[in-house]
Design a protein that fits this description.
163 residues; elongated
Amino acid sequence: MKNDLETRTKRFALSIIELVGKLPQCKASDVIGYQLLKSGTSIGANYREATRAQSCDDFIHKIGICEKETSETEYWLELAQGADLIALTASEEPLRETQELLAIFVASGRTTKSRRCPPNPQSAFRLFCSVRCKIPPRTIEARKPPFPLRAASAPGPNTRSIQ
């Protein structure tokens, strides 16, 4: 599954590159095309990073980036479509693919988050977390020292200096 999605995101990036190459030459398409190219190609790169995450939290974070980039790509595609820079038929497949990829990344993030903690409410980890969260933060109180403090005095006649 992992390699399938990696291949799929790479194919998607290549289709975005091809789509941007077909945009008309004007200021609006330059800006939209640049943004579409950045967000559309970064999905695969971020997914590859997520598959090589060093921890569960790292994976969740990187899958979240994939979600954001996919959503941004969908936005730029809709904008290009609305500005009549690309035909509806040309943007139909990339839009469908962004929606499917977004659903996959959201589901993957949710599943990983739900499995991060053991499902058993009586598990040691959950008990530790609940107890730890209910402990009020420590307050540091000013206490009197156990012995009286004297004011520092200047060296007197009986004080020797070490040379």
